[in-house]
């Protein structure tokens, strides 16, 4: 199953219809109440784009800290880019995410060092809950890209000129479909196909459906205990008994 | 690829296995948690019916939302109280040690770890906080993680990571008067850029680094992430060991000190280590650095002209133009004389005892400018107490500073300490992003703590070296 199958379910907007956002809807991770977790493979992501221009867009911009005074990620979508989207009286400002034509977008197209700054996963959570399934950009800050991967959101890169061309195309074709082939590292829009880069580990994790690493790593619990016991600073009492 | 560096050695000692993705599964020696990024992770554990695997290697504090004025419970702000209550419940259930404000050990997570001896050379340290790189000052491999990774660490005691390249940043020479560790890191970020460190871990070396105390080394490692590097470290040496010996852990377990020292020595980068890149900085050339823009890389020596956007690399020009508009600065001017409304002395970068001492030296016998509100927010309750005993609290209060309780405070404005409207702040913190200090029109000028003190008393960005001359004369 690819993420686009449930794209319509994941939309949650500040303006427009309100949809209750439960974690199960937006994360697509199914739990059965035990630690068996079904992690979907993310091989393709398709959808229309939204251009967010500018270098060094930090996570404080993506989700201002005052919206992080919460103990769940629910409902963060409406606060994505809040301070650049709304004025002091909460009136919408000129911003792509406020434009009607981009309301169904699921592929964000950004420039360099996107997501720099704070490690807050609230940032990709907010974008995902707004409706973003994938991000194409010149470059990404490392922690941000890791957080996206943990949510099954590809962060694919291309050079500056390629990205600017794509942003311009999205502006002219707000309903135009962008298809990201994660495995082949290709993005197709209109009549154009471009080569993009998906970090090796990210590609494998997405394509093979191992981007949620908890169960995978837990299955190595014995080796982890062994490793802990080898480390001179770990006291024996800190190492749990085998289950 | 690098070889024989501390990074390589600590990585190898902690690698459990290589995962199918090609990432390595690394054992985590210390997991620090706080109230903002952990509650969702505990929620995910509950959803999956998982327990905390290594509670004894996990330690909690409260810092981001904690009020720094009135700390009586319940906190005045409901959301803050809810987050605190959630953390209390989570650590109680899991059996995790919690340096809460009643213990006298509470403080910013990157201040208390080193204080208590939890932070040690050769440990892997993670926390849901990008400034976890701070702990690299002790020769630990320390980096920030997101909430889903916190879930991984809670559930498994491990984290999935890709190995990165190592860049050695060799800082030779000697810092001049009024120039500090903070200026070294601001200069590094200015030169290498805010994304120059993406894909790298930074090893800070050279006599200017080795001659720093642990606090200075922490200030530098702290801001590695502002240069794009997820982790930065300094090789452990006698300065490191002297600090460690005084900490709770080694005071309580003195035998551990001798037992672990060979390990600490063994993980130091070899003389023959190979690096993926080496950069040289001359400390002799540095002057106090201040930022003119809205990224930590937009810095300039306090007497140097603010650059014209068109003189910067093409990909930096747009950001620079927008930053100069936001900050209301003109190319060609210096930052000296830039009007300040707020002076903030705090944060995980610069709120340790020596930081407050140096600032107090400038403040002593002077008064905070009439148009400035100035606050000191110690990095921890222990720093607060020690500073009080030394008389620093009195010096600050007599000068007109507010003396607060420990927390992150106005570094990110998650509690009531925030900029208002378009106030300009002289700040010893780490980020000058638009909106960072709580007001989207607020303007932040990053600088070292002595420079913050100088700005507080003059009401404008000032060269602290000039004030020192007056003091000396």
β-strand percent of chain B reads 15-25%
Largest sheet of chain B: 5 strands, parallel
**Total strand count of chain A, please?**
9
Mean pLDDT of chain B: 97
State the major sheet of chain A: 7 strands, mixed
Helix content of chain A: 25-40%
* Sequence stretches where pLDDT stays below 50 over 5 or more residues of chain A: 1-27
Query: How many structural domains in the coordinates of chain A?
Result: 2
How many domains of chain B, as an integer?
Answer: 3
Mass-distribution shape of chain B: globular
**How large is the count of helical segments of chain B?**
17
Catalytic activity (chain A): (2R,3S)-3-isopropylmalate = (2S)-2-isopropylmalate
Pfam families (chain A): Aconitase_C
Biased composition (Basic and acidic residues) (chain A): 1-33
Enzyme class (chain A): lyase
Q: Could you explain the architecture of this structure?
A:
The complex is a heterodimer of chains A (243) and B (473). Chain A is an alpha/beta fold and 243 residues long. Chain A has helices at residues 23-27, 59-62, 82-85, 122-130, 142-150, 160-172, 200-207, 214-218, 221-230; strands at residues 30-31, 37-38, 44-52, 107-110, 134-137, 155-157, 177-181, 186-189, 192-195. In chain A, the strands form two sheets. A seven-stranded mixed sheet of chain A has the order 6-5-4-3-7-8-9. In chain A, strand 8 (186-189) and strand 9 (192-195) form a beta hairpin. The longest helix of chain A has 13 residues, at 160-172. Chain A is globular, with a radius of gyration of 19 Å. Residues 1-27 of chain A have low confidence and may be disordered. Chain B is α/β, with parallel strands linked by helices. Chain B contains 17 helices and 19 strands. Chains A and B meet through helix 4, helix 5, helix 7, helix 8 and helix 9 of A and strand 1, helix 2, helix 3, helix 5 and helix 11 of B.
Jot down its keywords.
heterodimer; A: 243 residues; alpha/beta; Aconitase, domain 4; 7-stranded mixed β-sheet; two-stranded antiparallel sheet; 9 helices; disordered N terminus; B: 473 residues; Aconitase, domain 3; Aconitase, Domain 2; 3 domains; 5-stranded parallel β-sheet; 17 helices; 19 strands; 35% helix; globular; branched-chain amino acid biosynthesis (chain B)
């Amino acid at each position: 199953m690819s993420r686009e199958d449930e794209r319509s379910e994941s939309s949650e907007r500040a303006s427009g219809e309100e949809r209750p956002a439960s974690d199960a809807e937006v994360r697509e991770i199914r739990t059965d109440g035990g630690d068996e977790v079904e992690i979907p493979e993310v091989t393709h992501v398709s959808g229309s784009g939204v251009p967010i221009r500018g270098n060094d867009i930090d996570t404080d911009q993506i989700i201002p800290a005052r919206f992080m005074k919460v103990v769940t990620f629910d409902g963060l979508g409406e606060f994505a880019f809040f301070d650049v989207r709304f004025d002091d009286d909460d009136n919408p400002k000129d911003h792509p995410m406020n434009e009607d034509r981009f309301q169904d977008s699921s592929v964000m197209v950004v420039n360099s060092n996107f997501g720099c700054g704070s490690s807050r996963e609230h940032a990709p959570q907010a974008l995902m809950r707004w409706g973003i399934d994938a991000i194409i950009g010149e470059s990404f800050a490392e922690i941000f890209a890791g957080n996206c991967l943990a949510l099954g959101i590809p962060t694919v890169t291309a050079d500056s000129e390629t990205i600017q061309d794509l942003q311009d195309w999205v502006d002219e074709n707000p309903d135009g479909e962008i298809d990201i082939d994660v495995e082949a590292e290709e993005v197709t829009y209109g009549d154009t196909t471009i080569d993009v880069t998906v970090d090796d580990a990210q590609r494998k994790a997405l394509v093979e459906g191992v981007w949620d690493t908890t169960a995978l790593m837990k299955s190595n619990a014995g080796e982890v205990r062994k490793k802990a016991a080898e480390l001179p600073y770990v006291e024996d009492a800190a190492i749990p008994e085998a289950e | 690829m690098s070889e024989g560096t501390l990074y390589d050695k600590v990585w190898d000692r902690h690698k459990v296995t290589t995962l199918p993705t090609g990432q390595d599964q690394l054992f985590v020696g210390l997991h620090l948690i706080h109230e903002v990024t952990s509650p969702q992770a505990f929620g995910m554990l509950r959803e999956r019916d998982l327990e905390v695997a290594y509670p004894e290697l996990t330690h909690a504090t409260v810092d981001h939302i904690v009020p720094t004025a009135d700390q009586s419970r319940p906190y005045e702000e409901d959301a803050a109280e809810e987050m605190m209550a959630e953390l209390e419940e989570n650590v109680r259930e899991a059996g995790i040690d919690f340096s809460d404000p009643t213990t006298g050990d509470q403080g910013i997570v990157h201040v208390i770890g080193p204080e208590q001896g939890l932070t040690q050379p050769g440990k892997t340290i993670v926390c849901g906080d990008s400034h976890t790189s701070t702990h690299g000052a002790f020769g630990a491999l320390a980096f920030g993680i997101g909430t889903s990774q916190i879930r991984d660490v809670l559930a498994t005691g491990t984290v999935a990571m890709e190995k990165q390249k190592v860049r050695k940043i060799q800082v030779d020479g000697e810092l001049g008067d009024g120039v500090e560790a903070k200026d070294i890191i601001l200069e590094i970020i200015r030169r290498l850029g805010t994304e120059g460190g993406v894909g790298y871990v930074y090893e800070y070396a050279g006599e200017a680094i080795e001659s720093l105390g642990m606090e200075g080394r922490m200030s530098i490692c702290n801001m590695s992430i502002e240069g794009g590097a997820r982790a930065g470290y300094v090789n452990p040496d006698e300065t490191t060991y002297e600090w460690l010996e005084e900490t709770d852990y080694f005071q309580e377990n003195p035998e551990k000190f001798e037992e672990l020292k060979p390990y600490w020595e063994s993980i130091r980068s070899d003389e023959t280590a190979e690096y993926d890149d080496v950069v040289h900085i001359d400390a002799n050339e540095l002057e106090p650095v201040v930022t003119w823009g809205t990224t930590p890389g937009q810095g300039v020596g306090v007497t140097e002209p603010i650059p014209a956007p068109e003189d910067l690399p093409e990909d930096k020009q747009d950001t620079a133009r927008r930053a100069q508009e936001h900050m209301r600065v003109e190319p060609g001017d210096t930052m000296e004389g830039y009007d300040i409304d707020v002076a903030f002395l705090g944060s995980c970068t610069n709120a340790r005892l020596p930081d407050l001492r140096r600032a107090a030296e400038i403040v002593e016998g002077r008064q905070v400018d009439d148009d400035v509100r100035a606050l000191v927010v110690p990095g921890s309750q222990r720093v607060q107490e020690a500073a009080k005993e030394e008389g620093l609290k009195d010096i600050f209060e007599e000068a007109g500073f507010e003396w607060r309780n420990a927390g992150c405070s106005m570094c990110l404005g998650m509690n009531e300490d925030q900029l208002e409207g378009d106030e300009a702040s002289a700040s010893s913190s780490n980020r000058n992003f638009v909106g960072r200090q709580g007001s989207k029109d607020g303007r932040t000028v990053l600088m070292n703590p002595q420079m913050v003190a100088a700005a507080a008393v003059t009401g404008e960005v000032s060269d602290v070296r000039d004030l020192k001359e007056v003091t000396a004369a």
